[in-house]
Amino acid sequence: MHPRHILPWLSWPLLAVCATPSSSPSPAAKVTPIYQFQGSGTWAENIAIRSTGNLLVTRVDAPELWSVDPIAKTGSLVHRFNNATALMGITEIYPDVFAVAVGNATTAGDPVTGSWAVWTVDTTDTLQGIDIQEVVAIPEAVWPNGLGRIDDAPGVVLVADCVKGVVWKVDLAKRTYAVALEDSTMAQMDVLGINGVHGYNGSVYYTSTALKALFRVPVDGEVRATGPVETVAQGFGVDDFAIAPDGTFYVMTHAGNTILRMGKDGVVDTFAGAADSLEVAGPTAGQVTGDGKTLFVVTCGGCGRDAPDVTVPAGVLAVELDPSI
Ligand SMILES: *[C@@H]1O[C@H](CO)[C@@H](O)[C@H](O)[C@H]1NC(C)=O
Ligand SMILES: *[C@@H]1O[C@H](CO)[C@@H](O)[C@H](O)[C@H]1NC(C)=O
Ligand SMILES: *[C@@H]1O[C@H](CO)[C@@H](O)[C@H](O)[C@H]1NC(C)=O
C-alpha cells in the first residue's frame, strides 16, 4: 500500500547494488486476469488463498472483504466492516482461519491511530458459513500494512506497521499484542517504511518502501531478534511479497507495474509486467498456491500515481509459475 500523496516518486532508478533486478526481462510469464472490480479508484490490497481454492481479497477503498473464484472468474462481497473505512493485510494463521487488519485509512493515506484491530475470518465451518470476529484492538498502531505468520510462533500474527516502523505480534489465542521487532530499516522516512512481512526458514522477512529493499532478521519462537538485520536484496520499488514453497520470492513493485522474482541464488529479475504496461497494473500483494504452480496477485489498478488517467480498476491476476526452476 503506497498512498500517492506522501510519495514523491520521481523515477525508479535501479541502483547498482547487490541483487538488483536485471534490466533484460526473462521470457514473459503468462498473466491471466481473474477478476476486476468496478470503477476507477478501486484498490485491492492483499490476498489469501482458502483450501477450497477461492481467494480472499481485502480492499482499501472500501471496508470490504471479497471472495474471488479463480475458476469461474467471479467475485462476491464476503463482509463489509462497519465502523471502519479500510482493510489491509490478510494471512492464514491456522488452516482455513485468516487474520485481517481492519481500521481507518484511505487510498490516499490518512491512517487513524486508535482505529485498528485484528479480526479473524474463520472459514472452517462450511455449513455455518464464514465466521468473522474482532480479536484484539491495537490502539497504538498507526497503520498496519502487511500481515504474516511464522512457523516457529503458531497462532501469532505478524503486523507490519508502515508508519510506526515496527512489527507487532498479535497472539490470537491470548488476545494480546506487543511490539516484537523494531529497527531503523522499518522506519517511515519521506515514504512508508516496512510494508510486507512474512516468516520463512526461521527468519522474519520484510520489505521497506522507503529503502526499496527486502530484509531479513532471524527470530526465536517469541519473535525476538536473535541476530542482526540483513539486506537480502535492494534497488527496486516494493509493496508486499510472496514466498513460493520452493523458496522463490516474488516481490510486487506497486507503481513499477512489475513482479520481480528472486531465486534461491539471490538473483533478482523482472518476472512479469513492465513499467509501460498495465498488464500488471499496480501489484500490491500476492500468494503462491500450495502446489507452487500459480501466483495470485492483487492490484490497485495502476493507482494513478504519475498519470491519474492511466489506471484501470483494481483486479486479481493469476501468474503461471514453473516450480521446476
Ligand atoms: C473510523 O471510521 C468509521 C466510519 O467512518 C467511523 O464511524 C469511526 O468513528 C472511525 N474511527 C475512528 C477511531 O476515527
Ligand atoms: C467504533 O470504533 C471506535 C474506535 O475503534 C470504538 O471506540 C467504537 O466503540 C466503535 N463503535 C462501534 C459501534 O463498534
Ligand atoms: C535457512 O536457514 C539456514 C540457517 O540459517 C541456512 O543455512 C539456510 O541457507 C536457509 N535456507 C534458505 C533456503 O534460506
Q: Give the strand tally.
A: 25
Beta content comes to 35-45%
Tell the overall outline: globular
Q: Bound compounds, please?
A: 2-acetamido-2-deoxy-beta-D-glucopyranose
The number of helical runs is 0
Oligomer: single chain
Which strand order do you get reading across the main beta sheet? 1-22-21-20-19
The CATH class designation is Mainly Beta
Instruction: Please report the distance between the alpha carbons of the first and last residues.
Output: 30 Å
Give the biggest sheet. 5 strands, mixed
Total domain modules:
1
Q: Please give the CATH architecture.
A: 6 Propeller
Instruction: Give me the CATH fold name.
Output: Neuraminidase
Radius of gyration: 18 Å
Average residue-wise pLDDT = 90
The helix/strand class is mainly beta
Helix-strand string: EEEEEEEEEEEEEEEEEEEEEEEEE
SSE topology:
Elements: E1 21-22, E2 31-36, E3 44-49, E4 55-59, E5 64-69, E6 74-80, E7 86-94, E8 97-103, E9 117-122, E10 131-137, E11 144-148, E12 156-161, E13 166-171, E14 176-182, E15 194-200, E16 203-208, E17 213-218, E18 230-234, E19 241-243, E20 249-252, E21 258-262, E22 268-273, E23 283-288, E24 294-299, E25 315-320
Parallel strand pairs: 1-22
Antiparallel strand pairs: 2-25, 3-4, 4-5, 5-6, 7-8, 8-9, 9-10, 11-12, 12-13, 13-14, 15-16, 16-17, 17-18, 19-20, 20-21, 21-22, 23-24, 24-25
The chain binds 2-acetamido-2-deoxy-beta-D-glucopyranose (NAG) (3 copies).
Keywords: Signal
InterPro entries: 6-blade_b-propeller_TolB-like (IPR011042), Hetero-Diels-Alderase-like (IPR052998)
Protein name: SMP-30/Gluconolactonase/LRE-like region domain-containing protein
